[in-house]
Structures are given as C-alpha cells and as structure tokens.
Amino acid sequence: MMLILVVVVAVIVFAMVSGSKKGGGRKRASKAQQRASEDVNEPWPFYPSYAMSRNEQEVYWKLEQALPDYIVLAQVQASRVLKVKRGENHQAWLNRINRMSYDYLICHKNTYPLLVIELDDSTHDRADRQDADRRKEMALAGAGIKIVRWRKQDVPSAEQILALVRQQQAMLQERMKRKQQAT
Asked: Where does the DUF2726 domain lie (predicted)?
C-alpha cells in the first residue's frame, strides 16, 4: 500500500514538473511574440535615400529621352527578369542571382527585356566587382539578353542608343521567329 502511495505521489510530482516546463516554454514563446509585436509597433531605424546616384540619374534621363517607345527601368533585381529553366535546380540557380541588380533594363512596351545597360565607375576595376560583373554577364547570356557597359564619359548619343536598342529588338524578333519555325 505504501508503495502504491509513493508511486502515485511520484507520478503527480512528475506531471507537475513536466507541466511547469511546458508552461515555461509558453512563456518564452510569449516573450518572443511580445518582442515581435513591439518590433512592428515601434519605428524602425530607416530613412529614405536616392534610388540612383547623380551620374545614374543623368544617364537615366538620357535613356528616357532616347527611347520614348520603350520602357526604361532602373535598379532592377535580376530575379525579376530571369527565370530558371525547367529541370534545373531552381533554388540553387536563383541563389546565384539573388542580390544582383541591373542599372538599367530596357524593355519592349509589353515589358519583355531587350537589353541591360550597366554604368561602370572606377569601382568596377576591382577584382571583386569584376567577378560580380562576370556573373551578371553569365546570367544574362544564359537568358539571351545582351548587356552593354558604359563609363559615364562614354555614354553614346540619343541616336546611337536608339539604334542599339532597335538592333537588339530586331535580333530578338529574328531569334523568336526561328524558334517558332523550329517547333
């Protein structure tokens, strides 16, 4: 009889200890939830910044002027315009372009990408930037999108820019026509 009483007391004590540990876990979760709640109720430490440097703005307005029949987008994330082909490791390839952006993306009016333009400054002479530039070029080449690089002092005239984009559009149309004929 005494043994049964000891076992019952032991089970009750064990249940109470286990219950208090679970309650402690709930308290921790509750504190985490409280911190998250405070996080969205308090101001975050951000302030606005210009989306483009002064040089990038000047080139942007020149592109806008030269290409009224096209869409000119600035600071475009690569993952917005590059998709992974079927049968490939989707996440692994997206990870390669995850933080890439293009200075300017020139699109047809239907938003199909025609050309990427990069405005290079002296930082592009560094080895790490050259590696990043090669990665951008590889990603775009895989998608069949041309990339051109200009230094600020080498930006072509509005007429030359328009001719370049029209040439790209003609090449793209020819490639699509061949693709349709092949199917």
From this structure: 52-161
Partners of residue 117 on adjacent β-strands = 104, 148
Could you give the CA distance from residue 177 to residue 138 in angstroms, rounded to a whole number?
Answer: 24
How far is the first Cα of the chain from the last one, in angstroms, to the nearest whole number?
87
Edge-first strand order for the sheet with 101-107 is: 71-77, 101-107, 113-120, 146-151
Separation of alpha carbons 139 and 96, rounded Å: 9
**Where exactly are the structural domains of the chain?**
54-182
Distances (CA, A) of 98 to 14, 48, 58, 144: 50, 23, 27, 19
**CB under 8 Å to 72, separation ≥6 — which residues?**
60, 63, 64, 104, 105, 106, 107
The answer for residues whose C-beta is within 8 angstroms of residue 55's C-beta and 6 or more apart is: 119, 121, 152
| Candidate ranges 17-21, 97-101, 177-181; pick with highest mean pLDDT | 97-101
Instruction: Tell me the pLDDT band of 127, cut-offs 50, 70 and 90.
Output: confident
Interval 81-119: pLDDT, tens = 999 999 999 999 999 999 999 999 999 999 999 999 999
State percent of the chain over pLDDT 90.
64
